[in-house]
Every structure is written in C-alpha cells, then in structure tokens.
Amino acid sequence: MKRVKGVATNISYRETLDQENGHQSFLDFVNLLPLKAGNPEVQMEATPHVLGKWSKVFSNAPQGGTFEAFLDRHFPVKDFPQFRKYLAEGDPRFSLPTPVERWKWITSLNLSLRTWAGAHDIEDGELSPWAKNSGWKPEGICCVCGILFPRTRKDRKTCSEKCGTVHRQREWQKRKESGSTKRYGRARKLKQFKGGK
Ligand SMILES: [Zn+2]
After folding, report:
1. Ligand 1 centroid to 182 CA: how many Å?
2. Do both 179 and 105 map to the same domain?
3. Which residues partner with 173 through β-bridges?
4. Are residues 44 and 64 in the same domain?
5. Ligand 1 centroid vs 90 CA: distance in angstroms?
6. Are 171 and 135 members of one domain?
7. How far is the CA of 144 from the centre of ligand 1 (A)?
8. CA distance linking residue 166 with residue 123, whole number of Å
9. Is 49 found in the same domain as 112?
C-alpha cells in the first residue's frame, strides 16, 4: 500500500505537536546560556570555579575572584535576567544544588548539542542522543541568531519566522550583489538602455 505523505502527517499531528513542544521547551532552556559563554576566554575563566578544589592542580587556570563576580563581569543580571535567575534558583526539571553545578550542566548540554547540530551539515539525519531518546527531530543552529532549534524540516536553517525573513533578505542581497537576481539584472539593463551611467 502506498502511503501519502501529507495524510500520515495529519494523523500524527497531535502526537508530534506534543513532542515538538517538549523539544522546544528543552531547547528554550538550553538556549538560556548566552552565546558568549562558548568563547574560549570565558570558558577559561570559568575553569577554576568548575574544577573547585582541583583547580590548584592546574596552575595555568586563572585564580581569584568568586563565581558571582565572574558572572557579573560577563553576564550582568540586567542583560541576562533569565540566565542569572536559572543559575541562582535552578530549574525544577533538574535538581542541581549550586550555581556552579547549574552552570556546568547547561554549558555541557549546550556545547554538546551544538557539536551534534553542527555535524548535521555534513552527515544528514544524525540525531543527538537527547533527540534519539525522546523521539525528537534533529537540532539545528540558526544561521541568523545562532541559537539551537528543532529542525522540523530538513532544509530549515533558521529558528523562527523572524530570522527566516532576515535570512531570505540576506540571500537576496547576496544574489543582488553578484548580479544574479533576475529583477535586478533587468533593472540594470534597462538603466543602461536608457543611457544611465
Ligand atoms: Zn534565529
């Protein structure tokens, strides 16, 4: 029996909707980590706090200052209110007792998911362990704002309608600059024809 793609999608819509909501809310949590947290310098500064008493073993790790001071320097509450709230109060889904434990958890999740999402561009259809266990779609990295999103379609490159519009405008701009846009090419020819220089 031949299956019609669209029909099967409609039948399972309710089920997949719930799953995708779960995936989205999981990624909303993971995306609380500001992008700059992935910078090597920031990771380096976080090292002594992450290692705790073991940091003394690594003499190269920068010493001094509290974890709170490190956070205030890179992620002030006024600029990252939700992220700082998570570190201070935690998330009921994950029982982690201290801000440093919460930092370690969200950082490792975020950076691992990025590695998996980055691999999709090369090896298509590869699922992260989280997506595999939960029956989710693969994760993608938005080419406009850089956050993680559920790749509900294979060719989806952006996290939202808003970023999708920006992406399309940029693509159009690129084509326009290389002169391959039909409308632009025609306008240019017309200008030349009319004697515009
Ligand atoms: Zn985006």
Report:
1. 28
2. no
3. none
4. yes
5. 25
6. no
7. 5
8. 26
9. yes
Ligand 1 centroid–CA 193 distance in Å is: 42
Residue showing tokens 């799953």: 19
Same-domain status, 83 and 30: yes
Instruction: Specify the residue for token string 């509290």.
Output: 66
**187 Cα–ligand 1 center, Å:** 32
Statement to judge: residues 10 and 75 lie in one domain: yes
pLDDT greater than 50 at residue 72 = yes
Give the structural domain span for 66: 2-155
Distance from Cα 145 to the centre of ligand 1, integer Å: 4
| Whether residue 151 is found in the same domain as residue 169 | no
Distance, CA 155 to ligand 1 centroid (Å)? 14
List of residues 6+ apart from 55 with CB closer than 8 A: 47, 48, 49, 61, 63
**Could you read off the pLDDT of 83-120 as tens digits, one per residue?**
999 999 999 888 899 999 999 999 999 999 998 887 65
Distance 148 CA to ligand 1 centre (A): 8
Token pair of 58 as six digits: 């690594």
- Domains identified in the chain, total number: 2
Distance of CA 57 to the CA centre of its chain: 33
Give 15's pLDDT tier (boundaries 50, 70, 90): very low
Is the separation of the CB atoms in 138 and 127 below 8 Å? Answer: yes
One domain, residues 90 and 108: yes
